[in-house]
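My current task is to audit a protein record that another person submitted. Alongside the sequence sits a line of tokens, each denoting a local backbone shape. Where you disagree with what is written, explain briefly why. This is what I was given:
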Amino acid sequence: MTQTVHRRSPQKMAAASGLVVFAAVMLVIAGVLDIFRGIMGIADDDLFVATPQYVFRFDLTGWGWFHLILGFLGVVIGVSLFKAGLVARIAGVAIAGFLIIANFLSLPYYPVWSIIAIALYSFVIWALCVVRPETRAH
């Protein structure tokens, strides 16, 4: 049985690696912003809206710790994406998904930033999922 390797053009590989770098930078930036959002929540900042009838209501300090931890993980995984390994890409998609969920659940507390963050993390997931390594056919 022979094995064929399908190679991509250098332009496609450059575009693919550019998308991973884009995802890494966006994940680091958005992660840092989520860290700041977490610090604001822990400090009981007045920027957050009080929503007494919200189903997913948590203490503002609890939301702060949640965003702080997820933001830190986002930064760490974003930095690891610069090596463009498959495990880092999978972790990047996973943490971006968790951050989308966290921002959706905290939407009533800080609506404008939550929508912006959801869009940023959606772009990160798209950029990490669109890149495919060389495929091997048997």
